[in-house]
Amino acid sequence: MNTNEQKLSRSLKARHIMMIALGGAIGAGMFKGSSTSITLAGPGVILDYIIGGIILLFVMKGLAEMAVHNPKAKTFRDLLEPVLGPFVGYFSGWMYFLNWVLVMAAETAAAALFLQYWFHGVPLWVLSLLVSIGITIINLFHVNIYGETEFWLAGLKIAVLVLFILLGGTLLFTGYENHPSVGFHHLTANGGFFPNGIGGLASAMLVVMFSFGGSETIGMTLGEAENPEKVLPRVARSVTMRILVFYVLPILIIVSLVPWNGLSHTESPFVTVFEAVGIPYVADIMNFVMLTAVLSATNTGMYAALRMLYNQALCGQAPKFLAALSERHVPIRALLVSIAFLYFGVIIAFFTDGKTFDHFMVIPGYSVLIVWILLAAAHVRSRIRTGQRLPVGSLFALAALTLIFIGVVLTSPLYGTLISIAVMLLIALSYKFLR
């Protein structure tokens, strides 16, 4: 291993990057947590997902444009730093690393719960340890092994969504046995399209934006993508369109088939529809799908965390020894540090009854919004510096994300917000100290 002669291997193909982004954005929250956003906004939540998708499109387009003009960038922090300064690079890098470390711990704990559905007698900590070891092994290999693994994990989730769209659409217009076709009657039958008014739409918007978090992992593949200046713009557009399709259509089918106020808070809305169609073993199928979703998110999280830590080390904003690569071009020391944080986070999640850990989980919400805001701001600033026309899309995204950020501050648990502020201040102070 060394830190100077070796470089990351450019082995990620366009299809790998596509699935990495989709895998990060389409998680267990889509299959189980979508009932929360529907409960808050009713059928009008469809508008929230469309607006969120438009914001995502503008942010991804700005990221892709900056990547074309900065071919040496390894992660999105290398796009932010030249435009917004070294502090922003340092701050965003450490916040994003912390974001994925916490998300990995939460997803690993969730994976253990899904596995215990079949293996009742196995302790949760054992199942969690097995999941962590599996994720570690995958990330020890060459990056194209990770890319292939994520391709198939994300592909399974998308296949389930496609099946759901086909079956749900058929049930919507043709009916099935004792279930008559309902068309779009339920969209306005129970209090109207916006039953909870603007307040409901605003509350659901916070949930929607969190569910889209993870799509920015496109910006973590810059150093390992084949021909990033050509691939990234195409992938950014395609990913946004696919995320819109795979969110909007399933949500439209759910709120059309089932009264929005009749959804269970504990059962996945997908289970409700599949049971209506008459598919056997629905509970086992959805448990497997959600297990796949959290494994995919954990896998993506490990990739993003260790690449960001490696890049921080390359830029002199983390200990230099973390910049070492293995013979397979994997940031091995950054991987070991990320694994240590993962195991520690899983221990906290299991032995604090979830309460203390839940306060820390507010941090990822802030982290994703901060990264998106900085990407939009950097795109606007880069256009100003080069004397080009201001990007209207990025300006809209910047304004919308700022409003959403304010909404998060006002609605998040106070204790979690205070912890997040303390972490941000600690990162900022550490920058001053290291300088």
TrEMBL record:
GO cellular component, one term: membrane
Pfam families found in the cross-reference section: AA_permease (PF00324)
One GO term (biological process): transmembrane transport
Amino acid permease/ SLC12A domain segment(s): 16-414
Alphabetically ordered keywords of this record: Amino-acid transport, Membrane, Transmembrane, Transmembrane helix, Transport
Cell location: Membrane
Domain of life: Bacteria
Transmembrane domains' residue ranges: 12-31, 37-59, 79-97, 117-141, 153-173, 193-212, 239-260, 288-310, 330-351, 357-378, 390-408, 414-434
Protein name (Swiss-Prot/TrEMBL): Putative amino acid permease YvbW
Species whose genome carries this gene: Aneurinibacillus danicus
Top-level taxonomy: Bacteria, Bacillati, Bacillota, Bacilli, Bacillales
